[in-house]
Automatic annotation (TrEMBL):
InterPro entries: AB_hydrolase_fold (IPR029058), Pept_S9A_N (IPR023302), Peptidase_S9_cat (IPR001375), Peptidase_S9A (IPR002470), Serine_Peptidase_S9A (IPR051543). It comes from Spirosoma liriopis. Residues 488-702 form the Peptidase S9 prolyl oligopeptidase catalytic domain. Belongs to the peptidase S9A family. The keyword rRNA processing does not apply. Keywords: Hydrolase, Protease, Serine protease. Pfam families: Peptidase_S9, Peptidase_S9_N. It comes from the Bacteria. This is S9 family peptidase. Transmembrane segments: none annotated. Residues 37-428 form the Peptidase S9A N-terminal domain. The keyword ATP-binding does not apply.
Length: 705
C-alpha cells in the first residue's frame, strides 16, 4: 500500500507538524445538487465527488490522505512496529495441506519474502516431483495490485483455465495455460467472473461467465473452444433479470456443468449440461420461483437437494435424475428443524455430512448411510468455527474439515468417519512466542430491547481486568445472512497483548441463529441490526468489560453502514470507530441501477423507488442522517477502485461530517489510491492497513508502544 502525499499548499490549508498551531482538516467544496424521489426533495452538497476522473476530486482525496499522515505522525513509529510485529507472527515459508484430486496432489506454498502464493501439484504421491502451475509472485511483478481469481484443471490434467485481476475492479481476464509445456496460450477473454469457469470432458471446450463492465453483474455464459478467436465464442445462456447473480462450475461428480442463478436470498435456479456433451443445451433443474432457494449435489443417479421449500431453516431431500422438475418425486432425507439451520452438505459413498448451525454455533454432523447412525463432532470450546473442507472424492471414509476458535489457530483435520479418529494435519503456526493458554474466550447472550437474545463471543489475554478499565473493540457485520464466526486472528494479538478485549456481536442480519435471524435484520426490519449492536455495547459497559471512553467499534462494507447508523444513534457510547469501505449513502446508491451490484441488492435493503422502502431507508441512511452534534473519533477507509462500495460514499460522508460535527475528535479518511474493496493485495501489504487501524485506536487510549 502506498500513501499519496503532496507537499505543496493548495486552497486546502495544511500545517506542518513542526508548527504549534493545530492542523486544519481539508474541506471539500460544497456544490449542491437537488435529488427528487417519490416527490421528496434532498440536497446533496457533495454529489460531485463521484467524478473519479475529476482532478479536483483526486486532489481532495490526496489532501485527506496527507492530513491523516500528519495527524497520525506521532504514532508512525507505533504503526511501523505493529506492522513488523504482525508480519513477524507469520511463518514466511509455509505450505497448505495437500488434497488429492484425480492423479495429483494439489497445494499452495509461500516463500520467504513472497507476497503471493505459489500453486503447485505432485503426481501420484507427495514424494513425486513438484510442478509449479502458477507463481503468484512472478505473475504479480510490475503490478501494484494482483489477484489470481482461481483456476480449473482439465480432465486430462494437461490444461488450466485461470483468471487475473490487476486493477481491483473484479473484472478478471481469463487465460489458458498448458501445464505440460508451460505455454500460456495467446487467447485472452476480458471481463469475466472469477472462479466461474469449467472444462468439458473433451479437454478443449470451456465455459465462462461474462460480466457487464458497468454494473459488474455476470449475465452471459459463453462456450469457447481452445485455439479459436474468443470473438467467435458462442453465447449459450443469458440472464435477463438483473437482480440475479450467476455462478458456473462443475459438479463434484464431474458429470455436469452447472449454471447457478441466485436472487439474493429470494430465489434460486440451476441449469445443467452434461460435460460430455458441450454443444448441448443447458436445462433447468427446477424453474425459479419466488421464495424458493436450493442447492444441489449430484451423486450416481440422483441429486441431493438442500431446500427451503416449506422449510425456513432448510431441509435435505433427494430426487432421481430426470425427475428433478417433478417435486412429487422429491423424497425427504433430513426434515426441517425450527432450532437448527442446515447450512451445508457433502456427500460420500457411505456417508452424508451436514454443516449445521444451532444456538449461534457451527456443528458438523456425520451420518453413516449404511447403519443410519449419526454423530456430531465435539470441539470442546465455548466459541469456535468449524466447517466442511474440500472433499473431491466420493469413495473415501475420510472427511477433511477446518476448525478454529478465538484462541485456537486455524486448523485442518482429517476425520475417519468409520473409526471416529481425528488427525490434525496442520495448525497455523504463529511465531513470536504465541501460547493459546495465555488467552481466555467467553460466550454469552445479551437481551436486546425487543427481547431477542443476541450471542456475543469475546476474547482477552489472561489477567485483563474486567472492572471497566480495559479498552474493548466490538466488531460486527450483520447483513446478507453472512455469519461472523468466532475464528482466530494472529493480527488481533497485537491488541489483546496491549490490554484490549475483543468482542463479536452476532447481531441480526447475519444467520448465526438461523434463517429467521437474517430475515429479522433486513428490508423493513434493518434497524434491528443497529439496535442489537448498540444494546450489546450498553451491556458491555454496564457489566464493566469496558467503559464508554474506552469502547471502540469496527465494521466494514455493510458493516460500515452499521458503524454509520450506530454513531448517529448513540455516539456517546464510543471513544472511536473504524468504518472500512463503508456503505453509507444507502438511498442514493440504491437509486442508481448503473452502480455495480445495486439491482441485486433490492431484496436486502428494498427498492427506494417504492415509497415505503424509500422512507425507511432514508430514516437510517448514515449519510442522510448526519447532524450537528458530537461524534466519536472516526477512521474511515476506502479504495479508489472499489467495485462494491464506491469510494465516493465514504468520501461524501466524511466531507459532510466535517461540516456538521460539533466536537474536536479526530475524523480521518484514508483512500488507497491503488486498490479496491478488499484493500491491498499480498499477504504483507494488507497488514499495513490493519496496522493503521490499530495505531488509530491505541493512540486514543494513550498506548504509544
Amino acid at each position: 500500500m502506498k500513501r499519496t502525499c503532496f507537499t505543496f499548499i493548495t486552497t486546502l490549508t495544511l500545517y506542518s507538524m513542526t508548527q504549534a498551531q493545530p492542523l486544519t482538516a481539508p474541506k471539500a467544496a460544497i456544490k449542491p445538487k437537488e435529488l427528487i424521489t417519490n416527490g421528496h426533495k434532498r440536497t446533496d452538497n457533495y454529489y460531485y465527488l463521484n467524478e473519479r476522473e475529476n482532478p479536483e476530486v483526486i486532489k481532495y482525496l490526496n489532501a485527506e490522505n496527507a492530513y491523516l499522515e500528519q495527524v497520525l505522525a506521532p504514532v508512525k513509529g507505533l504503526q511501523d512496529k505493529l506492522f513488523e510485529e504482525m508480519k513477524g507472527r507469520i511463518k514466511q515459508q509455509d505450505e497448505s495441506v495437500p488434497y488429492k484430486e484425480g492423479l495429483y496432489y494439489y497445494y499452495t506454498r509461500y516463500i520467504t519474502g513472497g507476497e503471493y502464493p505459489i500453486y503447485c501439484r505432485k503426481k501420484g504421491s507427495l514424494e513425486g516431483a513438484e510442478e509449479i502451475m502458477f507463481d503468484g509472485n512472478a505473475l504479480a511483478k510490475g503490478h501494484n495490485y494482483y489477484q489470481l481469481g482461481g483456476y480449473e484443471v482439465s480432465d486430462n490434467d494437461e490444461l488450466a483455465i485461470f483468471a487475473e485481476d490487476t486493477v481491483s475492479r473484479r473484472l478478471y481476464t481469463l487465460r489458458i495455460k498448458n501445464l505440460k509445456t508451460g505455454q500460456v496460450y495467446p487467447e485472452t477473454i476480458a471481463d469475466t467472473e472469477a472462479g466461474s469457469f469449467a472444462w468439458a470432458t473433451d479437454n478443449k471446450t470451456l465455459f465462462y461467465i461474462k460480466k457487464d463492465p458497468q454494473t459488474l453483474l455476470g449475465y452471459q455464459v459463453y462456450r469457447h473452444v481452445l485455439g479459436t478467436d474468443p470473438k467467435t465464442d458462442v453465447l449459450v445462456y443469458e440472464e435477463e433479470d438483473n437482480q440475479f447473480y450467476m455462478g458456473l462450475g462443475r459438479s463434484k461428480s464431474k458429470k455436469y456443468i452447472t449454471i447457478g442463478s441466485d436472487h439474493n436470498g429470494v430465489s434460486t435456479e440451476y441449469r445443467l449440461l452434461e460435460a460430455s456433451n458441450p454443444t448441448g443445451t443447458f436445462k433447468s433443474f427446477l424453474p425459479r420461483e419466488k421464495g424458493h432457494e436450493y442447492e444441489i449435489v449430484h451423486y450416481k443417479d440422483k441429486f441431493y437437494v438442500r431446500t427451503n421449500w416449506k422449510a425456513e431453516n432448510f431441509r435435505l431431500m433427494e430426487v432421481p435424475e430426470g425427475k428433478t422438475t417433478d417435486r412429487t418425486a422429491w423424497k425427504e432425507v433430513i426434515p426441517h428443524r425450527p432450532d437448527v439451520y442446515l447450512a451445508d452438505i457433502d456427500v460420500f459413498a457411505n456417508h452424508l455430512v451436514l454443516g449445521e448451525r444451532k444456538a449461534g454455533l457451527t456443528n458438523i454432523r456425520v451420518i453413516n448411510q449404511k447403519t443410519k447412525t449419526d454423530e456430531y463432532l465435539d470441539f470442546g470450546e465455548p466459541a469456535y468455527v468449524a466447517g466442511i473442507g474440500y472433499n473431491p472424492d466420493f469413495n473415501t471414509n475420510v472427511l477433511r474439515y477446518s476448525y478454529a476458535s478465538l484462541t485456537t489457530p486455524n486448523s485442518t483435520f482429517d476425520y475417519n468417519m468409520d473409526t471416529h479418529d481425528k488427525t490434525l494435519l496442520k495448525q497455523q503456526e504463529v511465531l513470536g512466542g504465541f501460547d493459546k493458554n495465555n488467552y481466555v474466550s467467553e460466550r454469552f447472550y445479551v437481551t436486546a430491547r425487543d427481547g431477542a437474545q443476541v450471542p456475543v463471543s469475546l476474547v482477552y489475554r489472561k489477567g485483563t481486568k474486567k472492572d471497566g478499565s480495559a479498552p474493548l473493540l466490538q466488531y460486527s457485520y450483520g447483513s446478507y445472512g453472512y455469519s461472523t464466526d468466532p475464528g482466530f486472528s494472529s493480527t488481533r494479538l497485537s491488541l489483546l497483548d496491549r490490554g484490549f478485549i475483543y468482542a463479536i456481536a452476532h447481531i441480526r442480519g447475519g444467520q448465526e441463529m438461523g434463517r429467521r435471524w437474517y430475515e429479522d435484520g433486513k428490508m423493513l426490519k434493518k434497524k434491528n441490526t443497529f439496535n442489537d449492536f448498540v444494546d450489546v455495547s450498553e451491556y458491555l459497559i454496564k457489566n464493566k468489560y469496558t467503559s464508554a471512553d474506552k469502547l471502540f467499534a469496527m465494521g466494514g462494507s455493510a458493516g460500515g453502514l452499521l458503524m454509520g447508523a450506530v454513531i448517529n444513534q448513540a455516539p456517546q457510547l464510543y471513544r472511536g470507530v473504524v468504518a472500512a469501505v463503508p456503505f453509507v449513502d444507502v438511498v442514493t446508491t440504491m437509486l442508481d441501477e448503473n452502480i455495480p451490484l445495486t439491482t441485486g441488492e433490492f431484496e436486502e435493503w428494498g427498492n427506494p423507488k417504492q415509497p415505503v422502502y424509500y422512507d425507511y431507508m432514508l430514516s437510517y441512511s448514515p449519510y442522510d442522517n448526519v447532524e450537528k452534534k458530537a461524534y466519536p473519533n472516526l477512521l474511515v477507509t476506502t479504495g479508489l477502485h472499489d467495485s462494491q462500495v464506491q469510494y465516493w460514499e465514504p468520501a461524501k460522508w466524511v466531507a459532510k461530517l466535517r461540516t456538521l460535527k460539533t466536537d474536536n475528535n479526530q475524523l480521518l479518511l484514508h483512500t488507497n489510491m491503488e486498490a479496491g474493496h478488499g484493500g491491498a493485495s499480498g499477504r504483507f501489504q494488507a497488514l499495513k492497513e490493519i496496522a493503521l487501524e490499530f495505531a488509530f485506536m491505541l493512540n486514543l487510549v494513550g498506548e504509544k508502544q
